[in-house]
Design a protein that fits this description.
Layout lengths: L3 E7 L3 E7 L5 E8 L7 H10 L9 E7 L10 H15 L5 E4 L5 E3 L8 H4 L3 H12 L3 E6 L4 E7 L2 E2 L6 H6 L3 E2 L14 E4 L2 E4 L8 H8 L19 H11 L9 H27 L10 E4 L4 H9 L4 E3 L19 H13 L5
Parallel strand pairs: 1-4, 4-5, 7-13, 13-14
Antiparallel strand pairs: 1-2, 2-3, 5-6, 7-8, 8-9, 8-10, 11-12
Helix pairs in contact: 4-10, 6-7, 6-8, 8-9
């Protein structure tokens, strides 16, 4: 029998968890809202919701990674890493929490030193990449989440990254701060074609990409767990009103079909942004023409399009994972780093330990 392992991904807006059972099958993949900028008590609440279905007993091993240390609740990243680790270790079974240090593997939460914090900070992308590299030799992994997109070249079964910290990865377009839910429309584009003229964007958080993909019908509604920009209804009508307001209009001034045209235009703008990042990674010359794009994250529907435009095959991250048990809630690929970390830990944590 294998040990039961829970992988945790503590983000700044969501907490994700994945459970591998004793048969090595993915039994649970789940995400709950966790707006850490509002305080650490939000993590306590999110954990309480998770632990309603996630086992926490002496027979369960917990492994964690994070990006939530960037939340402005913390003075700096080092404080964020320490506080998030302490909170998780306090709430879960003592002695069974290990922290992911990237290429440095796992370390017990109680043994983590100050020098480890910068390796732990925002390393969740590497867990996804390291697992994918055990399953495929050459590929470009594109993980499109609610807030950001990670791009990782996998060459000769290794993750060929150039940056490690968020700042470094932004320089190389290995991290693109654009996602399919939380990204504000005003951050995506300046002017858009609207009613035969170019309409300028208002520098206000009136609408987000969730509104775009709600109108195109591509948004997995279960994954949109944050309030809308105006705290209003998360319906097509609400999304049309928010998009209209972003450009100084009211929704009733144009037909529903015209607002859908705007949503499609904004979708294309985001795709263009991501396609440039894909082209940059491919330009490194590490991947041959047969190397596919791997799509992960709740926005991986965009990766299918990017693969097609790049003339490459598409592989879903789900196809690189153990067969899920029937009771999985979210798709495993929606919670890529949590699932990948649990899978990596299963190779390191021995039965009976």
């Amino acid at each position: 029998m294998n040990p039961r392992i829970v992988g945790w991904d503590v983000g700044g807006a969501h907490l994700k968890a994945a459970l591998l059972n004793e048969q090595g099958r993915l039994e649970i993949a789940r995400q709950v809202a966790c707006p850490l900028w509002q305080g650490l008590n939000r993590l306590d609440r999110a954990l309480a919701l998770m632990l309603e279905v996630i086992p926490d007993d002496p027979g369960t091993h917990h492994v964690m990674t994070m990006t939530g240390e960037l939340a402005d609740h913390f003075a700096n990243r080092q404080e964020g890493v320490r506080e998030l680790t302490r909170t998780m270790a306090r709430r879960l079974v003592a002695g069974r929490v290990k922290v992911f240090r990237g290429d440095g593997g796992l370390i017990g939460a109680e043994a983590m030193a100050l020098s480890d914090t910068l390796k732990v900070a925002s390393a969740n992308w590497l867990a996804t990449g390291l697992w994918a590299a055990t399953r495929i030799q050459d590929a470009l992994l594109v993980d499109v989440g609610s807030t950001t997109t990670d791009l990782l070249a996998i060459s000769d079964s290794r993750v060929a990254y150039r940056g490690y910290t968020d700042g470094e990865r932004l320089r190389y377009d290995e991290l693109v701060y654009s996602g399919v839910v939380r990204t504000p429309i005003m951050a995506l584009t300046g002017k858009v074609p609207l009613d035969g003229a170019w309409s300028g964007v208002m520098a206000e958080h009136f609408a987000s990409m969730a509104d775009v993909y709600r109108l195109t019908g591509e948004l997995p509604e279960a994954a949109d767990q944050m309030p809308a920009a105006d705290q209003g209804p998360k319906t097509p009508g609400g999304s049309r009103q928010r998009l209209a307001r972003q450009y100084g209009w009211d929704a009733e001034m144009l037909s529903d079909a015209r607002w859908l045209e705007l949503a499609i235009h904004l979708r294309e703008r985001q795709l263009t942004l991501l396609h440039k990042a894909v082209d940059l990674q491919l330009s490194r010359g590490l991947l041959g023409p047969s190397a596919p794009l791997i799509g992960a994250g709740i926005g991986r529907f965009l990766v299918r399009t990017l693969a097609n435009r790049s003339g490459r095959a598409y592989v879903d991250f789900n196809d690189l994972l153990p067969a899920p048990a029937p009771s999985v809630d979210f798709s495993a690929a929606d919670c890529g780093p949590a699932v990948a970390l649990a899978c990596l830990a299963s190779l390191e944590i021995q039965p009976g330990s």
